[in-house]
Amino acid sequence: MRKDNSEFKTAFLSEAGTFINNKDYFAFIELDDIACWVVAHGLDSDREVESAEMAVRSILGNIMNNPTMSRMKIKKYVQEAHKLLQEESHRVRLKASLALIVTNYTKMIWAVAGNAKLYHFRNGRLNFKSKDQSLAQLMADEEEIPESQIEEHEERHNLLNYLGKPYDFKPIVSKKYPLTDGDVMVLSTPGLWEGVNSVEMLDTIQEAKEPEEVVDTLEDVLLSKQKPIVNNYTAATIFVNKTYKEDPKKKIRIIKRIIVALVIFALIGGGAIVYQVRAAAKKAESVASMIEQEKNGDVFVQDGDYPKALKEYSDARNAAVRIKDLVHMKLIGKKYRITQLIVDGDTAFKDGDYTKALSKYEKAQKEVQGRKDFNAKELDEKVNKSKSLIQISNWMKEGDIKFEKQDYAGAKSTYEKARKAATAASFTSGEEKIKAKLDETEEKMSSIEKEKRQLDGEKLEKKGDKSYASQDFKKAIESYATAQEVYQEIGMLEKVLSMERKITKAEEKLNPVPKEGAVPEADSGAQPNGSVASGNTEQAAEKGGK
């Protein structure tokens, strides 16, 4: 285990400077036999996609899946990161500078694309620094300007090569370089190296005991110059305190193994060739299958059949995994992810979970910005409809709360608003539910109104009874008649008949029918003792009535 028998210490910082966004990115991994440090600086203006982070993650992902100290493979990993930026350039062209170190804890390989740099210090001096791919570097190589002027030359940002370049991308990849105990390496983006020169770096390293001290001091030196504009800056320092010591006899063993392998190959070479041919044929078949499945997925997406598209993309991605095609793994993987979000959104929408559906649709909406292989307009419609249905659901809940609090008028108003929105959104099932709630609310309101009117009728009836008792028959009739109208209005027919009887009785009292042979009340005043006669007449009438 090389890592356990060596000691590499890392510290880094990455800041936005005087800008809001930091387009720099640094990350590293330390595996058992391989370690890799990558720093990148985004050169584009895209605010949605971080090109530096995308490039770094692509390279580290390849290193993790297939650790290597092969120059050819490392160059391939850088080229795949470059191709990934090209494929993801939807709104603007994604561009980045990059520098990396790969080591087996004994030797290292470094690579550069653009103007990120590696500084290597050994025995208290600058051992070397990587060349960048700017016009200023080219001018220095042709001895038009001194090497020391590159960091300040106006053409230092005029790059001849970078990740995301439209054509002819050629990164610099070094040969294997032996490491020694005590080596110090600094990876830097332009924001740092154009403000801190190699002499200042060397002074900082000589005074520091830990890599954290180096990066902190480098930042202090940069900021102490008080420039009005400070670009994004990143510095990563690696202290090689102890390298892995290889067994000197290992080379002899390796040579012996190679000789044995050559002999075996000579003996069974024919079989090996047949195997390779079959393997190549199988791989070609997998590639063809992957491409066909991806195309099928694209067709289903255009047709709006996302479940079928999801299956095709899943199969295509699995084929890419089998043939270890990392570029297609990422590209198809993104199509799969977008399709999965849409399928999840559709499922949640169908289940009535519109909040979850909206969340899925909005994530997919963000992913498809600038892409032409997905129907952005259809996705916008899904987002808008989800928002409408969420609003309708909220109004329904609001109406339910008002209903529970017996604010039936408020509930009715809210339900009507929800029903109107449901009709506009063609939300048929929701419209039916809202109609049922409206019917229930109106029934409650009608019941309450009936009870209220019944109370009004009963009050009028009691008022009539009181007037009748005080022999004010005229007012009694008026109260009974009004009460009768109220009872008639709310359909209380028995009460209507009851009022009719009371009205008739009061009218009889108001306009009594004289008894046959009785002296009219108008002539009683002409008789002597008229008051007595009048009283007798009333008594007689009363008895007659009884």
Automatic annotation (TrEMBL):
Keywords: Membrane, Transmembrane, Transmembrane helix. Signal peptide: none annotated. InterPro entries: PPM-type-like_dom_sf, TPR-like_helical_dom_sf. Residues 438-468, 507-546 are annotated as: Disordered. It comes from the Bacteria. The chain crosses the membrane at residues 258-277. Residues 526-539 have a biased composition (Polar residues). Gene3D superfamilies: PPM-type phosphatase domain (3.60.40.10), Tetratricopeptide repeat domain (1.25.40.10). This is Serine/threonine protein phosphatase.
